[in-house]
Amino acid sequence: MAKVFAHRHKSTLALRHRRDVLMHQLKVPPTLIRASVVERFGTCGSPNCRCRSGQKHGPYYYLTQCLAPGKIRKFLLKTEAAQQAARRGTAAFSEFYDQLEELSQINTELLRRGEAFDSEA
Questions:
Q1: Whole-angstrom Cα distance, residue 37 to residue 90?
Q2: How many CB atoms lie within 10 A of CB 114?
Q3: Contact assessment for residue 63 and residue 32, using Cβ atoms and an 8 Å cutoff
Q4: Are residues 121 and 111 in contact, defined by beta-carbon separation less than 8 angstroms?
């Protein structure tokens, strides 16, 4: 779900300035990953294992990515380094997406006000 930025009560000049700042900051991080890091605990098939009494195996960390409806890619992050890289990549995507969403909302508000929002105007 996208963040909602409070831009309706800002001046047009302030919106234009914020848009310019975002345009200078907005760079696609090469490590971004649009996915989630998921922590799982599980049970095994052994009838006498401790996991049957509530002490499940884990945690196991997976990177889960929804590609399209019904198309999910998921794999185990086996090492601490892989887990950290996945967390950094998903955080980079989240930050990039928030900046992109804010830019979109600013442009929408400027358009609602009847203002040209391209840099040529």
A1: 8
A2: 7
A3: no
A4: no
Q: What is the SS3 string spanning the chain?
A: CCCCCCCCCCCHHHHHHHHHHHHHHCCCCCCCCCCEEEEEEECCCCCCCHHHHCCCEEEEEEEEEEEECCEEEEEECCCHHHHHHHHHHHHHHHHHHHHHHHHHHHHHHHHHCCCCCCCCC
Give the separation between CA 57 and CA 115, rounded to whole angstroms.
58
pLDDT at position 121 over 50: no
114: left (phi over 0), alpha (psi -120 to 50) or beta: left
**For residue 106, pLDDT beyond 90:** yes
For 64, phi then psi, to 5°, come to -120, 130
Q: Write down how long the chain is.
A: 121
